[in-house]
């Protein structure tokens, strides 16, 4: 990734150019963050095993990128961290929308597959996992902002506690506390259903 885009002021300048209709700014953003967004998409797609039957990471990334770029034209993003979290949000939204779509459209196909392969009941479990993962991602979006930032960087982006602490300019102990608090919140909410 070009080092200039890691600098929040350079990123803001690029985003401002995008809002003014400069298509080269869009290309610059995708070149600068494309690899990171692709890795993030692949990682997040692993949470949706049934979805991988119909969509690969390129499909998800393309849909998310279109949403993301449209949103960037009107939503101000203040820092590199905000940019990455905003990208993760749109990838999550794309995955959840695709999961809902395929669950509705391909319900008969999933049931037929189970009937054809009774010894291997993977798809019903995937359906249950899909529901749980969908709920998980929705609940992450409801976390308080401080906890959501830590969860996003740790879980979706795969950052270490030290990296998160440096980026958020807080102690590792605070990162650990926010991470643990978020996990407890998520576990409490998700165990009710």
Structure overview:
The protein has ten helices and no strands. The chain has 193 residues and is mainly alpha-helical. It folds into two domains: 3-142, no CATH class; 144-193, Winged helix-like DNA-binding domain superfamily/Winged helix DNA-binding domain (Arc Repressor Mutant, subunit A). The longest helix has 26 residues, at 80-105.
Total beta strand runs: 0
Terminus-to-terminus distance:
41 Å
Helix content: over 70%
Number of structural domains? 2
Instruction: Specify the structural class.
Output: mainly alpha
Number of helical segments?
10
Gyration radius over CA: 18 Å
Determine the mean pLDDT: 78
Approximately what portion of the residues adopt beta-strand conformation? under 5%
- Helices and strands, in order, run as HHHHHHHHHH
Overall geometry: globular
Low-confidence stretches: 109-126
Q: Please outline the major beta sheet.
A: none
